[in-house]
Amino acid sequence: MDHFATDIDEVAIGRERQKAREMRNSQWWKRRLAGGLCYYCGGSFSPKDLTMDHIVPMVRGGKSTKGNVVPACKECNNKKKYMLPIEWEEYLRSITKNDLK
Asked: At residue 7, does pLDDT exceed 70?
C-alpha cells in the first residue's frame, strides 16, 4: 500500500512541475520577475537571477498556483529547500539570534 501511495505522490509532483514550467512562460510570472525582488530577503536582483520557489514545497503538498509561487534569489531558494513557511521563519530567527551573540 505504501508503494502505491508513493507512486501517486510522484505522479502528482510531476503534474505540479509541469504546471510550474507553464507558469514560468506566462506574462504573470514575467511581471513578477521584472520587479527584481526576492520574496524572502527583499534583495534586488536581475530577473534572470531569480528562481521560482514554492512557498509550500511540492514535496510537502504545495501546488503550482499563483498564491504559492514567488520569485526568490538562488541563495534563499537553496537555503529554504523543502521547509514550510513556519520552518523557514524559525530558521531565520535562529540565524538572527546567532548573529547577535
From this structure: no
Task: Find where cell 509561487 sits.
Answer: 69
**Which residues fall within 8 angstroms of residue 71, CB to CB, at 6 or more apart?**
32, 33, 35, 37, 38, 39, 50, 51, 52, 53
* Structural domains of the chain, count: 1
Count CB neighbours of 75 within 10 A. 14
Residue 101: what pLDDT?
52
Helices of type H across the chain: 2-24, 27-34, 74-80, 85-100
What is the domain range of residue 11? 2-100
